[in-house]
Amino acid sequence: MSPAMTMTFTETKVGDDNHDQYESQYQKGVKHLYENGLDRLPNKYVLPASDRPCMTKEDPNTVKHNKLKLPIIDFAEFFGPNRSQVLKSLANACEQYGFFQLVNHGISDDVIRNMIDVATRFFALPFEDRAKYMTSNMRAPVRYGTSFNQTKDSVFCWRDFLKLLSHPLPDFLPHWPSSPVDFQDLAGTYAKETKYLFLMLTEAILESLGIVTTFSDHQHQQQKRTEEKNILKEFEDGSQLIVANFYPPCPEPDLTLGMPPHSDYGFLTLLLQDEVEGLQIQFQGKWVTVEPIANAFVINVGDHLEIFSNGKYKSVLHRVLVNSVKSRISVASLHSLPLSCMVRPSPKLIDEENPKRYKDTDFESFLEYLSSCEPKRKDFLDSRKLT
Which residues form the Fe2OG dioxygenase domain (predicted)? Predict the structure, then answer.
């Protein structure tokens, strides 16, 4: 960035509109801006006052000082004598919070550290190397970009991302970045491990909903009914998207967000955070910060699971704060049914007292929605509601 452009950014005050000509600079992402000595937030990133995180003054809609301790689910206990109790805890977490932390999940600390490390090294590459993967094509196997939806966002968010289609892995892995040189190996291992964890967790969720039969330990791996096997097979064949997020230090974090309030489109999201706080969820009408737990996954209910459960399990609004001191990395593994599959409430959860509450929906409808408007909160899911 030229000295003249740096001066323009550093001298621009909130409310000035005279730097819209630098739109192409914003499209290059926030890391590009940060690396060029930005010391004031460009207007393109300044949210309306009602949407700002308001961290420096009292905000009745934000819980300050109190971090939210999400329910902690010990994955290992699903395979022990306490399975029925853990299933109840899982159901309560999905109903009351829409989020929980998963510990003892079986993915090694090395696999987790390697994923964070290789994502960090990818974002440290020169802009020209990252820019090879810039595209507005949402079907691309690799997509590098910025903000939430850079083609539609009227105000940009303080985030750069790398999105990787991940299932079936052999189809997509050759298209993933070849730099850093170990990226495909480390990220591919992470994708396989999180896919397996998702399937095991989904089986527990289906059991907690009463869709899959409860088995005792010695029966658990025996043949299930054909209907149940077909349900689980659909998830085995389902979609997976790995999203690495990078949030560099922000000069004025009170004026913007790393990600706006949104719910996740899919069935379940497995989120890996580094030690830097940033994730907030909406709980009992207030924004609360999720405290990171080392090597744990934050799991959240997606829109598809809300539809599939006929509203019993709710997807929850969440957003990301940024700060002026530390960069933050997170890696989300988003899972759902196959992209060609129609998502609908399970017939087992529909009766006279609980009528069907959502329209059948498919991925094409979601893509059409994304291409036609700026995503906000749970607007897409709300558009699928029948009652």
Answer: 237-337
Asked if residue 288 lies in contact with residue 281, where contact means CB atoms within 8 angstroms, the answer is yes
Identify the three-state secondary structure at position 29.
Answer: coil
Paired tokens of 256: 């913007």
Query: Counting Cβ atoms within 10 Å, is residue 7 exposed (0-12), middle (13-18) or buried (19+)?
Result: exposed
CA distances from 4 to 18, 24, 217 (A): 14, 16, 69
- Give the chain's radius of gyration (CA, Å): 21
Could you give the percent of the chain with pLDDT greater than 70?
83
Q: Which residue has the tokens 């905000």?
A: 59
pLDDT-derived band of residue 149, with 50, 70 and 90 as boundaries? Answer: confident
- Cβ proximity of 270 and 299 under 8 Å: yes
Least confident of 30-34, 215-219, 247-251: 215-219
Among 71, 305, 348, 80, residue whose Cα is nearest residue 202: 305
Tens-place pLDDT, residues 182-195: 999 999 999 999 99
What is the rounded distance in angstroms from the CA atom of residue 346 to the CA atom of residue 202?
14
| 289 bridge partner residues | 67, 280
Query: Across 134-191, where does the E strand assignment appear?
Result: 142-146, 160-165
State how far the Cα of 134 lies from the Cα of 325, in Å rounded to an integer. 27
Whole-angstrom distance, CA of residue 299 vs CA of residue 333: 10
Contact status, residue 243 vs residue 143, Cβ threshold 8 Å: no
Alpha helices in 1-124 (DSSP H): 3-11, 23-27, 30-35, 83-96, 109-123
The CA distance from 229 to 81, in Å, is: 24
| CA distance linking residue 165 with residue 181, whole number of Å | 19
Structure tokens that stand for 172 in this block: 């997509």
Distance in angstroms (rounded) separating the CA atoms of residues 236 and 89: 25
Our CA angle for 251, 252, 253, nearest 5°, is 110
Closest-CA residue to 102 (of 67, 71, 80): 71
Say if residue 110 is exposed, middle or buried (CB neighbours under 10 Å; 0-12, 13-18, 19+): exposed
Give the integer Cα–Cα distance in Å for 96 and 99: 8
pLDDT digit string (tens) for 2-55? 333 332 333 333 344 444 445 567 888 999 899 888 889 999 999 999 999 965
Average pLDDT of the chain is 86
